[in-house]
Amino acid sequence: MVTTTLTTRIPRSWVIPTSEAADRRPENARILNTLTVLLFCNIFLQRLAIPVAGAQLQLILPITIVGVIVMMSRGDIQVNVGRLRAYLLAMTACCAAGLVSFLRELDDTALTSLILLFGTYIPLCFGLAPADSRALFPKLLDRFVNLTTILAGVALFQFAIQLVGWQYTDVLSVIPADFRMRGFNTSYPVQYGSSLYKSNAFICLEPSFCSQFLGFGIVVCVLRSGSWWRYVMYVLALLSTVSGTGVLLLAAALVLLSVHKGARFATTALVGVSIVVLILSFTPAADIFAQRATETSSNNSSGSLRFVQPYTRTWEALDKDPLTVLFGSGPGFADRDAAAFYLKTSLPLNYALLPKLVLEYGVIGTVAFLAFVMAMFVRGSPSFVLSGSVIVFYSILSGGLLSPVVTALGMLLVSWFTATPEDERWSRSRESPPADPSSPPPPGRLTPAQRSA
Q: Residue 276: what are its φ and ψ, rounded to 5°?
């Protein structure tokens, strides 16, 4: 094992092997099945919502909370002391920032946004016992590979039937609109005026979300030394989404893998990517991807709306008074600013983690929350590569501060499997049986009666 500044303990091997340790208890099969159900819901039910007071609650959040309650009642998971402390610190700082905004009577502040922040992150204060984590982590990754392989197959099917003449339609339109998540570009063509639509596998919030889950599938498949045919399916499905975010996620993961594995893997990965690019260059898709690669220079492109304008608007907001810089403009401000921007331009502005935190909770809330992010996805992580990939997905690509589908994926792939020395000691203290008063003391130690005599 090696120790680095990024994580407490990182396996030297880049492949995550099947655990040779025996399961700590027979209940581990039940735990694995529960975690698999949560993963399935997170991937395949992400477009479903529950109407709440004129708004929507993504279905995966109550499913996750119910899963936590059930697993806690069975003793399958436990409170993670380090993350609980970081959570309380972050929520206290965000509440203080929100209180200042409410007292200042700023417009566009919402108490519901602060409440949702509490509810979204409370499941991440739990986790598996270290012994269970070591035994179940590789098995859950295998389940994730299987689920994302199914997702890749559905994405390819959706794109293929369009090529043979099927006119695209949203198959989930049979579900009432209030029970489908709004505010996402679920259906849109590969380019303006085209009758061919990007693949979102029917069930993903957007083609970009589909591509990011497929990118994670490739990463985990590499970590588990998956079969070659899975990579072919993943790459073809990723191309069918015509989305750059999955490619960016995969590129970041390949860099991390190259750092972890070394020059031989980096060379192999470079050759593989070059072959894919060469083959792609002979297809009509080459021009589409070339346009996507340079679209951040256009103000009305998705790249600009995701990676440029949220940051420039946040920087401009920092020119306001010092109280706004320190405490922000109030919970929910970024969402309302994006809504106002849409009404004015008909363009969807996507605030990622950092600009949203700074706008709503200021520097104080941002610093405290970023410390919580490190506790969630980095400290004690079982995989250097997965931690880095989750952070890129969560903080840059997805706009995931209040997105349960994003936080739940990071929770199930990383957070619930972290194990720091503090976690190990706390788990052992809970498992140690109470001392028997009638048992003889260890050699050299006097009993209370002997000491009083």
A: -60, -45
Q: Is 301 helix (H, G, I), strand (E, B) or coil?
A: coil
Does the pLDDT of residue 373 top 70, yes or no?
yes
Residue keyed to tokens 């020119």: 319
CA distance 341 to 438: 73
Phi, psi dihedrals of residue 170, rounded to the nearest 5°: -75, 110
Calpha distance 304→329 (Å, rounded) = 23
Please give the Cα distance from 51 to 58 (Å, whole number): 9
**In the structure encoding, which two tokens stand for residue 199, read together?**
């693949």
The residue ranges of every structural domain in the chain are 26-426
CA distance 184 to 209: 10
Name the maximum alpha-carbon separation found in the chain: 95
pLDDT tens profile 273-304: 777 667 666 555 556 555 555 555 566 667 78
pLDDT band at 205 (very low <50, low <70, confident <90, very high): very high
Residue 28 CB contacts under 8 Å (≥ 6 apart), including other chains = 132, 135, 136
Contact residues for 267 (Cβ-Cβ < 8 A; gap 6+): none
Here the tokens at position 1 are: 């094992």
Beta strands, E only, 124-216: 126-127
Residue pLDDT, tens place only, 98-152: 999 888 877 667 788 999 999 999 999 999 988 888 889 999 999 999 999 999 9
